[in-house]
UniProtKB/TrEMBL annotation, chain A:
Protein purpose: Component of the dihydroxyacetone kinase complex, which is responsible for the phosphoenolpyruvate (PEP)-dependent phosphorylation of dihydroxyacetone. DhaM serves as the phosphoryl donor. Is phosphorylated by phosphoenolpyruvate in an EI- and HPr-dependent reaction, and a phosphorelay system on histidine residues finally leads to phosphoryl transfer to DhaL and dihydroxyacetone.
Keywords: Transferase
Record lineage: Bacteria, Bacillati, Bacillota, Bacilli, Lactobacillales
Reaction equations catalysed: dihydroxyacetone + phosphoenolpyruvate = dihydroxyacetone phosphate + pyruvate
Enzymatic class: transferase
Gene3D superfamilies attached to this UniProt entry: Phosphotransferase system, mannose-type IIA component
Organism: Pediococcus argentinicus
Location of the PTS EIIA type-4 domain: 2-122
Name under which the protein is recorded: phosphoenolpyruvate--glycerone phosphotransferase
UniProtKB/TrEMBL annotation, chain B:
Native source organism of the sequence: Pediococcus argentinicus
Entry keyword set: Glycerol metabolism, Kinase, Transferase
Keyword Transferase part of the UniProt annotation: yes
Gene Ontology MF term list: glycerone kinase activity; phosphoenolpyruvate-glycerone phosphotransferase activity
Pfam families tied to this protein: Dak2 (PF02734)
Protein's name according to its UniProt entry: phosphoenolpyruvate--glycerone phosphotransferase
Length: 122, 194
């Protein structure tokens, strides 16, 4: 698969839970997560996000997050990675579900982004 | 007005001590309008900074700030990590050419604005950094009382950025915790007397 998905949440279980949910419709899309801080507290960690980028077998990644500071850490991690990352300001569950289902169906990125537009919330 | 490595270390050690002393107060400020962890987050970051700089030698202010930036980015956990981390990263870049306070503070402010996509009057740390940079750039002296006033000014603002923005009007009447910790940082800087 040319594209992968990364889920970033303040809470480890939310990130894992969203992965569980969207994996159901996308068995072939590589999905990695970065939830919580390094010491398993509520928050986000740039290092965890970098690892989620590295561990994802795709070189081009669609990234989804929950709240503001997750986005800041994502943006920092994006500055440090060689992979191409697309960051979406959309509802985490609906957005990542939509994108992953469409990736599984082989939809082009441009068309996926059209579908994501109405889900933009932040 | 140019900061030396020794002065920069004193600045950061003073800030570490202040954060340790005020962490409960910072978290209390963060409770009504945020997620109540600002003090603990900053303390976690500054403890790492303290451990990494207290017995270490740094060839330049730039090297020192880079270390501080990486510690804050990786240890703080909340929004303050990338924000303070970016501030110190930008100061590190600038310090390679100049350690004049006005240049450092202006670089930090630009970094915070870029990372947080925020501007003044949104009830954030920018409401402390921005007037500070303004005064320094017009070659005015900045007192600790001036900084207290910058911090206090966030009390009557409506938050439109960050976690507090979800509360809208209900954020009025509370000092922004990031503005408060920025106040501690900049007061410690003024005290160093560079």
């Amino acid at each position: 698969m040319a594209y992968g998905v990364v889920i970033v949440s303040h809470v480890e279980q939310i990130a894992e839970g969203v992965k569980n949910l969207i994996s159901q419709v996308a068995a072939d899309v590589p999905i990695t997560t970065a939830g919580g801080t390094d010491d398993h507290q509520v928050g986000t960690s740039m290092e965890k996000i970098q690892k989620a980028f590295d561990d994802n077998s795709a070189d081009e990644i669609l990234a989804f997050y929950d709240l503001g500071s997750a986005k800041m850490n994502l943006e920092m991690a994006i500055e440090f990675t060689d992979k191409q990352i697309h960051l979406y300001d959309v509802a985490l569950i609906e957005g990542s579900y939509t994108a992953t289902a469409l990736l599984e169906a082989g939809t082009k990125l441009d068309d996926i982004e059209v579908q994501l537009k109405p889900l933009k919330i932040k | 007005m140019a900061l030396t490595v020794e002065q920069a270390k004193t600045w950061l050690e003073d800030f570490y001590t202040e954060i340790e002393a005020q962490k409960q107060y910072l978290s209390d400020l963060d409770t009504p309008i945020g997620d109540g962890d600002h003090g603990n987050n900053m303390a976690r970051g500054m403890t790492a900074v303290h451990e990494d700089i207290s017995d270490a030698d740094f060839a330049s202010v730039s090297d020192l700030f880079k270390k501080v930036a990486m510690d804050l980015i990786s240890k703080v956990g909340g929004a303050s990590g990338p924000l303070y981390g970016t501030a110190f990263l930008e100061m590190s870049k600038t310090a390679a050419g100049s350690t004049e306070l006005k240049d450092l503070v202006s670089a930090a402010l630009a970094g915070i604005e870029k990372r947080g996509k925020a501007t003044t009057n949104e009830k954030t740390m920018i409401d402390v950094w921005s007037p500070m940079a303004e005064k320094l750039n017009s070659d005015e002296a900045v007192s600790e009382a001036d900084i207290d006033q910058f911090v206090e000014s966030t009390k009557d603002m409506v938050a439109t950025k960050g976690r507090a923005s979800y509360l809208g009007e209900r954020s009025v009447g509370h000092i922004d915790p990031g503005a408060m910790s920025s106040g501690y940082l900049l007061k410690a800087l003024v005290k160093v007397g560079a």
